[in-house]
Amino acid sequence: MILVNGEPEGRVSPLDRGLLLGDGLFETLRVRQGRPQLWAYHWARLTRGLGHLGFPEIGETEVLDEIARVATLPACMVRLTVTRGEGPRGYAPPAAPALTRIVSAGPALDDAAPTERESLSLGWAAVPIGVNPALAGLKHTSRLEHVMARRSWQPGWDEAILHDALGRVVSATQGNLWLREGRTLLTPPVDQSGIAGTRRAWVLEHAERFGFEVIEAYPDPARIERADALYVSNARIGMTPAVLSEGDKRGPAWQDDPLYSMGIALHEAD
Amino acid sequence: MILVNGEPEGRVSPLDRGLLLGDGLFETLRVRQGRPQLWAYHWARLTRGLGHLGFPEIGETEVLDEIARVATLPACMVRLTVTRGEGPRGYAPPAAPALTRIVSAGPALDDAAPTERESLSLGWAAVPIGVNPALAGLKHTSRLEHVMARRSWQPGWDEAILHDALGRVVSATQGNLWLREGRTLLTPPVDQSGIAGTRRAWVLEHAERFGFEVIEAYPDPARIERADALYVSNARIGMTPAVLSEGDKRGPAWQDDPLYSMGIALHEAD
């Protein structure tokens, strides 16, 4: 089911600024029994984005209700999209936008604990994403550069390391990237490009409790090859181990990994 | 009138990738008597974009027919938008996309020769656009950074100079930027960010005939202040003179400007 401003099977105006200008935000939610996991993190990012873009506020209760309406399976992924709605021609936004909300559900991974999943095979995306601190971190809908990076994947890859236009490794294509070096976790900053993932935020907040220190830095390829383990995080997969698609000696040893208990805690977090 | 895949008053699917991911291209056309001005330039840019994004080809005759259908006034501006259409969830594009075409008309400037227009008052946009050679030049629909730059204009400005995330002046917000220094025209390159305007392309091709040399370079603010004259170009305004909104001693002297005859030729070009 898809809801457009609460209407089942609604359609969207061809003058919607989300459609014409990528003028919108979205959240990808793992929903269990109608409740989005880590909702507080999603809601915080979304409301920060709404403020940054100059959108009016939206009602949390109304949105949660729409999410529950589309989440008809016990476990599913829900995409919540909010655009600036219709506007006059050109870049200038309307003074009082009437936002468009689109809420749709799709299948989730089966709900097995991450320990039972295979490591992701990780390539190197051939197309960079842009550098722009003015929009970095936000999960906005102007995502053509991620589409182009995704198109550059080769067969057999489950994910790909993404670099920015200045050559810095900034994330995976569909999630944030992590290197484990002993009890240190390294993840690239998201203030120049990339998306500030909700699972990334959760790990930053909880790592210490599991005995890890987190540093934010751009890893060069040699460091990625040398790290004790690699992970990718997003709402769909939680924190999942990854190995480079070529010449990686690191086996999938998730169950023996020092990060295992944190990965399970993230998987089960509310 | 608006046509969606040729249908008057059509609506768009909430699963359209243009809406969800900014996965599309557009052209803004000045249409006179149903015919888009400089169509060859628009079509060349659009087909280059379609190829770059991996979209299938579209029919030129069909598109021109739709443009003529919506262009019911003797002079109007038509926006042609092409998105990748519906797709599965996520960034990965469908193997065989069914594109969405949206064609809509709006008012043009009155068709007075540019000599009779006032100079644009030009501010400095406070928000940068990103750097990404992978998408630079294309007129794609992932335009949130232009929306944000446009939002940063101050009252009284008609246009604003846009810089990129590395601080380089790359264009105006809604068009390309030009500095005249004697018989030399300077315009920023569009291979790192910005849009390769059709009027920019026309000037690059025709300047020599009017006795101008063109160089592509990033002008620093001092050079912008010192130039003999400033212009902004786009499909709507052609080539229009501009003065800085604050402290600019250069009067609007378009009729006496060495560029006058070229501006008129562009205005009248087919």
From TrEMBL, chains A, B:
GO terms, biological process: 4-aminobenzoate biosynthetic process; folic acid biosynthetic process
InterPro entries named in the record: Aminodeoxychorismate_lyase_IV, Aminotrans_IV, Aminotransferase-like, BCAT-like_C, BCAT-like_N, Class-IV_PLP-Dep_Aminotrnsfr
Entry superkingdom: Bacteria
Gene3D superfamilies given in the database record: 3.30.470.10, D-amino Acid Aminotransferase, subunit A, domain 2
This protein's pathway: Cofactor biosynthesis; tetrahydrofolate biosynthesis; 4-aminobenzoate from chorismate: step 2/2; Amino-acid biosynthesis; L-isoleucine biosynthesis; L-isoleucine from 2-oxobutanoate: step 4/4; Amino-acid biosynthesis; L-leucine biosynthesis; L-leucine from 3-methyl-2-oxobutanoate: step 4/4; Amino-acid biosynthesis; L-valine biosynthesis; L-valine from pyruvate: step 4/4
Catalytic activity: L-leucine + 2-oxoglutarate = 4-methyl-2-oxopentanoate + L-glutamate; 4-amino-4-deoxychorismate = 4-aminobenzoate + pyruvate + H(+); L-valine + 2-oxoglutarate = 3-methyl-2-oxobutanoate + L-glutamate; L-isoleucine + 2-oxoglutarate = (S)-3-methyl-2-oxopentanoate + L-glutamate
Cofactor(s) needed for function: pyridoxal 5'-phosphate
GO molecular function: 4-amino-4-deoxychorismate lyase activity; branched-chain-amino-acid transaminase activity; pyridoxal phosphate binding
Record-listed E.C. numbers: 4.1.3.38
EC class (word): lyase
Sorted UniProt keywords: Folate biosynthesis, Lyase, Pyridoxal phosphate
One Pfam family linked to the record: Aminotran_4
Protein family per UniProt: Belongs to the class-IV pyridoxal-phosphate-dependent aminotransferase family.
Functional note: Acts on leucine, isoleucine and valine.
Subunit structure: Homodimer.
Protein name (record): Aminodeoxychorismate lyase
